[in-house]
Amino acid sequence: MEAKFITLEGIEGSGKTSSIKSITDLLDSKRITYVVTREPGGSSIGRELRSILLDPKTEISSEVELLLMLADRKDHVEKVILPNLETGNWVISDRFMDSSIAYQGGGRELDKKMIDSFSKNLNLPNPDLTLLFDVPVEISLSRVKARGELDRFEQEKLDFHNRIREAYLGLAEQNVNRIQIIDSSQQIELMLKSVEQIIETLINGL
Ligand code: TMP
Questions:
Q1: What average pLDDT does the structure give for the chain?
Q2: Distance CA 7, CA 133 (A)
Q3: Which one of 9, 52, 55, 153 is most buried, by most CB atoms within 10 A?
Q4: Given a cut of 80, is residue 1 above it in pLDDT?
Q5: Rounded CA separation 25/6 (Å)
Q6: What mean pLDDT is predicted for residues 23-49?
Q7: Could you report the per-residue pLDDT of 80-111, keeping only the tens digit for each?
């Protein structure tokens, strides 16, 4: 069975991280081997980049922010994603390339075509499936604030997060075969059920 590459995307507090356990429980029940990873911070260099990128004291331009995200991604692909897929392990990544289009393109208003062409030149693998957790920004930010201290992205204004959400929904329209939208404003049990159904369908299609 060919290993699959699944990515989870969405604005802050959209529930993507909470759904990982439902996915891994399902894979365990089918005896499918996998790794769970994330961006930024999926490799050891990436973990250092993550702490710089999320630190509210870090002062960098949007372009430098993009380049650090891409450096993190290329190292993550080389050290974690490809080696696992090649040995037959599924890869579940909490964020991948759509985050750069949504955050640096939508949120920071950098040219999305430029970001896309960087990604193409870096020769990155395409996810087999992307789950986009969608929720109104007001709900997501209230969840984030309840969690405690805010990171450099979480501290941004409402408009920034609204632009990210819109950019994600635009990506979903352009990639209907890859991106499946999960309504994260519904009750958590219902949200997890939709996640499970989508993963079951992917497994059954193999
Ligand atoms: P999170 O993994 O806890 O969601 O935090 C990662 C933060 O980094 C989140 O605010 C989204 C942001 N980010 C980008 O801005 N661009 C990217 O390409 C990636 C992968 C993450």
A1: 96
A2: 11
A3: 9
A4: no
A5: 15
A6: 97
A7: 999 999 999 999 999 999 999 999 999 999 99
Q: Is 101 in the pocket of ligand 1 (CB under 6 A)?
A: no
Atom of ligand 1 nearest to the CA of 153: 10
Q: Is 153 in the pocket of ligand 1 (CB under 6 A)?
A: yes
| Residue whose entry in the numeric block shows the structure tokens 């060919």 | 2
Question: What is the rounded distance in angstroms from the CA atom of residue 108 to the CA atom of residue 106?
Answer: 6
Give 205's pLDDT tier (boundaries 50, 70, 90).
Answer: confident
Q: Which of 11, 51, 61, 153 to mutate to test the pocket of ligand 1 (most atoms within 8 A of CB)?
A: 153
- Domains, the chain, in order of start with CATH, read 5-204 (3.40.50.300)
Q: How far apart are CA 142 and CA 140, in angstroms?
A: 5
Pocket test for ligand 1, best of 99, 110, 143 (most atoms within 8 A of CB): 99
Per DSSP, the three-state class of 16 is: coil
